[in-house]
């Protein structure tokens, strides 16, 4: 038995003895990558401001996770890419106008990042245990704390170094305040409006404007099966249906006109695409059973349209997702997966 | 045509090429055998030999200790030198009979009865009982019990399980290639015992030559259907196989007999045939010796009680890279802490995994609730919740998530991106709560 290994050298672990190659950090970094097209479009339209703000968010997110984990003696996990993702998402959800020295608002992204990573994620136990989407809590905190700075929108200039672009309103803002006729007027004609909304040449948060780029990233994630259709499709579908039913207004009286809305405008504007494909699908804060995810998506869509049509804000995706985050554990608990054989047992 | 299958499941690399083309070879008769008196699910056997006694090959050395039990026979001729507790592959200490092999290979009794099929169902059942046959797919459930359903639960279908969905293992595949006729005969005997006239042989589609062979062997049997199955783990799990072939779902915590089905492994069918025809007890079985860490992979006909160290030696020993030795397949097998454990009736393979292929389970991350395990769980459970609750010590709450429906196939742990030891956490919860 000369070349038989000594017994104490045998490794003993629990079954299964083979594992899939997928890892948490590979998933996180892939999602980061899938966001790049949309980020680059934001960079193209809003220039260096977009880059600075997003970089600031990423750096402060990663550093605050690192220092918090050091401080409380937890294992440092910044390599897993999840705090990078939080920073990237937060940056892409902020208005480019925040990179401003007069008035001074550069501290705003940093505060948002710390709130997102330390309070929303680490205080609740770190990755996997947070109830709310960290980036969205960060943004919600900033919107409430800095209402003015967070609602100054700049025109997409495509002028690379322009640090002082002209301010304007977002399409949803125009729609809410002045109605659909004004919105179409601002973009020339209806077809041009759709086209500009689709490629992202409009005012808005850094990473939310280009539907085209977001769909490329989302398509990649769907193809890699990192996300499934359940949440995005039920979310977008609900928005489209409700926009069609309740989104119309009588141009004379200004009162709601049923079944006269324009679903496409609602689908293409605001943070809907970014929210539906990249934020509502966050593993940790959405239900994990597929049928529950459809309920979750419908809830997100309904709340989004409630806020857009009846609420005080022109956009409702953020609050809709955050509110549905509260229900995710409840949905999982009440809509468990179907146990093999159990259905037939009932029929007996 | 879509292949028969079930909902969920995973696709681990099958790695069957390592041992697939090695024909079954008789292993060297070992100097001594250690035969555990408990090789099956159920009550351990009572030893009926004493130290110093001469025994012949095939002689009963342990009598069943209850209804759910099966007798144990000597696999060599020689002298009993010890009856004591020895470790088994699962790391438990089991009362075992140690026999020094005299090398004469003298049989106690072996009679060819070519007219076996004319025997009555009860006579055939008696042969299965006397031969000590248990399920040879791994769980080692006494076959006699499966063949004795209560009156109110009639059986109408028998399935021979040739799925062999565990990666690496090729023992059943070799049997189907080399002993296809005998397996079909075994199935016919089982059908006779249970008075059933529908038999299936289910084989995963990655073994087209086995399907071919079995179809050929069963071509004159209108009641026997050979079916290709989608290649997917755990296709060979009893409940999954029944669902794939008959569309019947075994309710939670019920048995296959509750949906009128009995499932037997191909090795078991062969053992049934040999018991009925020759009166040969179950004293040897095919073991696949495989993995990237073994010098010469093989499919060996091994005498029950042969130590795994003897088999490893016969296969040329380990390569330098060897890190872990598993008894059984990579998905549900047990890692060995010592090679001085015997092959039992349920040992389907010995798998040597190289050190760099070992996934260490002490470094795992938090559950990120990605839902992969829920998507693939063949039982439709939520392994993520089971693992979280068990990890936090909320064992009672795991029952709300159907803890006891889990049969520990390991698919969830396979797909888990955080490498969580979900199977271990499930076992922990099972051991600390009552169903």
Can you tell me about this structure?
The complex is a heterodimer of chains A (348) and B (435). Chain A has two domains: 24-159, no CATH class; 169-202 and 227-334, no CATH class. Chain A is built from 15 helices and four strands. Chain A has helices at residues 24-46, 48-71, 82-92, 107-121, 134-145, 171-178, 180-186, 190-199, 211-223, 230-246, 263-268, 272-279, 290-310, 317-334, 342-347, and strands at residues 153-154, 167-168, 248-249, 256-257. A two-stranded antiparallel sheet of chain A has the order 1-2. Chain A has a two-stranded antiparallel sheet with strand order 3-4. In chain A, a hairpin with a 6-residue loop joins strand 3 and strand 4. In chain A, helix 1 packs parallel to helix 3 (82-92). Chain B is α/β, with parallel strands linked by helices and 435 residues long. Chain B has three domains: 19-103 and 281-357, Ubiquitin-like (UB roll) (Roll), CATH 3.10.20; 114-278, 3-Layer(aba) Sandwich (Rossmann fold); 372-432, no CATH class. Chain B has helices at 121-130, 143-146, 171-178, 180-194, 208-217, 238-246, 266-278, 308-314, 372-376, 383-391, 411-415, 422-432; strands spanning 24-26, 32-36, 46-47, 54-55, 60-63, 72-73, 78-87, 93-101, 157-162, 199-204, 224-229, 261-265, 284-290, 298-303, 322-327, 334-335, 349-354. Chain B has a six-stranded mixed beta sheet with strand order 1-14-13-17-15-16. Chain B starts with 23 loop residues before the first strand and ends with a helix. At the A-B interface, helix 1 and helix 15 of A face helix 8, strand 15, strand 16, helix 9 and helix 11 of B.
